[in-house]
Amino acid sequence: MAPKISPLAPGDFPWMPAIPGVRLATTNCGIRYKGRDDLMVALLDPGTTVAGVVTRSLTASAPVHWCKKHLPGGSARAIVVNSGNSNAFTGKAGEAFVQATVEAAAKLAGCEAGEVFVASTGVIGQPIPTDAIASNLPGLSNAFDADGWFPAAKAIMTTDTFAKGSTRTARIGDTTVTINGFAKGSGMIAPDMATMLGFVFTDAAIAAPVLQKLLSDASEKSFNRITVDGDTSTSDTVLVCATGKAGNKPITKAGDKHLADFRTALEEVLIDLARQIVQDGEGATKFVTIRVEGAASDKAAKRIALTIANSPLVKTAVAGEDANWGRIVMAVGKAGEKADRDKLRISAGGVLIAADGMEVPGYDETPVVAHMKGQYIDFLVELGIGEGAATVWTCDLTHGYIDINGSYRS
Amino acid sequence: MAPKISPLAPGDFPWMPAIPGVRLATTNCGIRYKGRDDLMVALLDPGTTVAGVVTRSLTASAPVHWCKKHLPGGSARAIVVNSGNSNAFTGKAGEAFVQATVEAAAKLAGCEAGEVFVASTGVIGQPIPTDAIASNLPGLSNAFDADGWFPAAKAIMTTDTFAKGSTRTARIGDTTVTINGFAKGSGMIAPDMATMLGFVFTDAAIAAPVLQKLLSDASEKSFNRITVDGDTSTSDTVLVCATGKAGNKPITKAGDKHLADFRTALEEVLIDLARQIVQDGEGATKFVTIRVEGAASDKAAKRIALTIANSPLVKTAVAGEDANWGRIVMAVGKAGEKADRDKLRISAGGVLIAADGMEVPGYDETPVVAHMKGQYIDFLVELGIGEGAATVWTCDLTHGYIDINGSYRS
């Protein structure tokens, strides 16, 4: 049965221009899926810098370990990603698979193995034949295409119901640069079949340490602000590659004032991709924006917002179109950050529901009920304590989630 | 529609003997429910000591605030509990309701207001008429009964599908003492309609500070080891009252060697009640025991066990009868405690599934599949790092949970 496309899916995959120095190819290498591509390879011209953020999981996959080891090198010539098997908890066999893959990709790209980056997404704990990817790489040599963004985004999907892409341009000095990204993810993690992966490419010339700072900051405002089920993948990986072909004066300092527009555009691409992952949340029927203001710090605001966003009771209430603000009070109370019952204000869809330690006198639920029936739900939680603020995105918890994750693997 | 009784419910409510110095009464005071009692009052003879543990929520209810304020007094003469409304986030009106209730109960019991303890469970944020309980208390004066345990346990139920009680005897020196407890709770919290409350009574003579130490220790091994959905109530309250009528030499020191048997019996009562709460977990069809061994510390073991127990992906896999050990690897990885992929061992139903960083060679899933089809599921996670161990109990996450919590309040 083909999966139904999420009711929250945006329109078509965006048109994305070529990025000089980036070529893409996909194929089926038979790891799990039949009748669709499950391998994506990006080739990058010499001189491409790279930055990455990976899962904090202590049981991270072999590909994650490889990326962590080689990201400090700062140079990338190839990215190899497969779907259908995460190569996590696969022991020495998993490490041998990574080694065989990067060696074959290095030969294809004409580079060092340490300039190849890998990511895998899918079932945990199932060994992959060592040469499953390596044996397929030589045959790809004529398949690379500067316009292959949509097939690339599709090849890395697992339980995703739509391909996720985003593109922006930015000015660095007098030069226009392009940023293209694609991502996959459906449960924040569903380790059987999903994980969050993101790959971003730009023709800007930016030194690797600067790119790393930009990515770390932007991830904090995007991928680290979404949750579907609060679970953490063993494979989460986001890579940004900068080919330098746009011809801007190379940026070597994170504080360079010419970076302002690029920083904003990168943030926009990452937030767009992050929101699309939530829009494809397993079983999601509603997209929920949780804004927390007036917390003791931004960090406290984020923790409170994520506690609300991860509460099964809040998420099931949204699924039931119930503006059950008592559950938000509960979540604020359990977040462990400073809160004062009598200063807390809770609004939904712009309507103040509770303040001064109780329901607002004469509260009329009618507009809130109407808001809860929509697809995009907004909660505002004001703590009245400090200046800390954060926005987090999540989806509702529905029967669909149980169906997807409660069914047997095979 | 009357709720179906949980498939995990134990047999009948246990027979519980009278505890000298404790009398119970119940009635309907019309706060929410019709056709059933929603108020439980316990009267305690002079000289009764009390200890309590309450929610750590920072948005705790007015009754919780009252208990926290008066528990240090160490003396209890009455406990008043209502179901149907939690009196949480009800502002000054909620405080006035507590004040009116404790004053009326103090008059009934012939004691100080500070010797009356209160708990409320049910909807958050709905004011209760100030005298809803107070006006009903005088009429109860002839209704108290030393054998009213089952009606008492029923009167405090909300979404619970069965009444929860437990009884044990213990020896203190040459004296046999009795411990009776009853509890309610169905979601670890479903703040609409549920919360975890527990009331325990003994005829032992134990000073309040000693009782507090015993309760805190035993709660850590019982109520703090269960989770249904990881949410935390604004109202959770457990009280233990000791009437001293058994005639044992009063215990005034926590280190008293005569306490060993009582400590064990109290732990057993609390664990029994805690397990019954999980057995009545909203939508639960399977009872899951998660044992973590070999962690860096007991605290680390508990955190890892709770992370596994709270993972929606683990819980939906159990619902789907899928021994999806990859999701346990994922949960161990996200717990944030020390773990080593290559030392981790995972077993289900006594069968070792994964070790040495991968699935056990030749792993035969047959006995594990059979185990997962049962009602009682056991996972053992061995970290191989230290001596820390902990056991946690939870239930599966099913469509029933979504049905119960996704339906509109009214």
UniProtKB/TrEMBL annotation, chains A, B:
Pathway: Amino-acid biosynthesis; L-arginine biosynthesis; N(2)-acetyl-L-ornithine from L-glutamate: step 1/4; Amino-acid biosynthesis; L-arginine biosynthesis; L-ornithine and N-acetyl-L-glutamate from L-glutamate and N(2)-acetyl-L-ornithine (cyclic): step 1/1. NCBIfam families: ArgJ, PRK05388.1. Belongs to the ArgJ family. CDD domains: OAT. It comes from the Bacteria. Coiled coil: none annotated. The keyword Amino-acid biosynthesis applies. The active site is at T195. GO terms for cellular component: cytoplasm. This is Arginine biosynthesis bifunctional protein ArgJ. The gene is argJ. It catalyses: L-glutamate + acetyl-CoA = N-acetyl-L-glutamate + CoA + H(+); N(2)-acetyl-L-ornithine + L-glutamate = N-acetyl-L-glutamate + L-ornithine.
